[in-house]
Amino acid sequence: MGTVTKALELLNLFTKGRPLIGLSDLARLADLNKATCYRLISELCDFGLVEQIGTAREYRLGPAVLRLSALREAQVPTREAAMPVLQALAQKTGETAHLSLLMGSELHTLGFAYSTGHMTRVTMEDAEVLPFHATSSGLVVLAFQPEAFRETVLAQPIPRLTGRTETAPQALRARLAEVRGQGFAESRGAFQAEVHSIAVPLFDALGRCTGAVAVAALASRMSEDQRRLIRFALASAGSEITSLWGGTLPADIATLWRLAA
Amino acid sequence: MGTVTKALELLNLFTKGRPLIGLSDLARLADLNKATCYRLISELCDFGLVEQIGTAREYRLGPAVLRLSALREAQVPTREAAMPVLQALAQKTGETAHLSLLMGSELHTLGFAYSTGHMTRVTMEDAEVLPFHATSSGLVVLAFQPEAFRETVLAQPIPRLTGRTETAPQALRARLAEVRGQGFAESRGAFQAEVHSIAVPLFDALGRCTGAVAVAALASRMSEDQRRLIRFALASAGSEITSLWGGTLPADIATLWRLAA
DNA sequence: AACCATCGGTTCAAATAATAAACCGACAAG
DNA sequence: CTTGTCGGTTTATTATTTGAACCGATGGTT
User: Fold this and answer.
1) B38 and B131 fall within a common domain
2) What angle do CA B74, B83, B245 make, to 5 degrees?
3) At the N or C end, where does chain A have fewer CB atoms within 10 A?
4) Which chain A residues are within 8 Å of B46, Cβ to Cβ?
5) Number of domain units in chain A
6) What pLDDT does A254 receive?
7) How far is the CA of B5 from the C1' of D16 (A)?
8) What is the pLDDT of residues B117-135, one digit of tens each?
9) Torsion-angle region of residue A94: left (phi > 0), alpha (psi -120 to 50) or beta?
10) CATH number of residue A117's parent domain
């Protein structure tokens, strides 16, 4: 593994739940020698991707990420373009809408929007990792990846997250084939027990699936009528975001979505 | 220089004006061997910090920067916290307000707000580099850096950008001392000929100056009254942002700003 | 106070990973 | 058909990275 990759993996150790990390912890978490870790994190620090704060000298993500993000959004307004669609989707369905993007080999939440319609709602966090096998977004993105990628994911440990999580690779393969045939995916409490969600895939200019948009609702509110409404709204949001991104919807998906409507 | 730093410097080559770069260009710009450059950019690509697009296989900043930025803002809402203050500042002064942050050894624009008061305005770009010697933000940030940093900057080539750009290191040193004595800095057409601007420093929790907030106006509108108004609004915005960031205003600055008001 | 563990950071010989130059096939212009 | 460029690959050589031991500082325990 290259030195650069090792350094970048240090960045992945910073999460919502663990925003500050000391040098020794960092070395342990990354399974690196302390000296190595120190050199790497120092270089990240010099660049501003991480910064060191306080008396405990802990590290956290630095301001340079903001600058890079501003540049990226100026060129490719991925998040900015999708957010209004997401908000409209949340409003139309009365539930929580969220957007996720495939980054490397992980699916990350990039943004979400709440509805003002109900007192209870599914809450989300930005920048969290979504498991491929247990979320509607994960399933739908995985379903539309090249087979090699699918098998790599299925070859990894598949944790049971709730009583309704499917963990058998063979069953998941069948599930993914079904998703490809439908043009959307559904999760019924496989990630969090009370949450049902439906997701549709998003595509880039080369027709590759690079993310998903989903609606997550409390299980108790997910009637058959509501399901239909959500699927319809999702199909429309999915084509809109794909088009805003300059992507192209594969012809078969467009057909599937038209039929569903 | 470490391998990681070399890789990260590749990221700095992507700018507003040059968002897409091919492998050979990248190697030339970074002054790296093509093979070296390929390895480095590939690792950045694998991580998602950079992505490769189109038929020409050019590279651009990738989606991972969005995720990191979302994490950072969740922990330290630098930009998000400052933007409302910036908007109020633009409204109050009738001119363009902007925020810049010291990242590594460069000062970058992090955000800006326009006033709706005039038909003409100073326009800004996100994520652009501000020269230390020719902008009010640059001068004020440089003035409050440790001497070693100041001298490093002054030792570098100092380009003349307009007819009114001061380029003599000795004169700049005197200018910086004056800025320290005033608690704010002013640029009269030293960056762009028709633009006058005034800036105040921002401080972190350890009392280090990490950025600046500035108001940029067309020279023709910069009367003595307007100057006073802007200085007053800036002092208030400066303390507000510093405090929102959890920073502490050095006592002497607080005094200077009180006197000016 | 003495002890012990841990912290962030440093040192230096030994091991490993990065590098430069040459090369590849593909493409485009002349 | 030559010439130059592109993105990408290969290889022996070289320089960087690495690991273990070591610092002084800090803070809790006996």
Assistant:
1) no
2) 55
3) N
4) 5, 104
5) 2
6) 95
7) 13
8) 888 899 998 888 999 999 9
9) left
10) 3.30.450.40
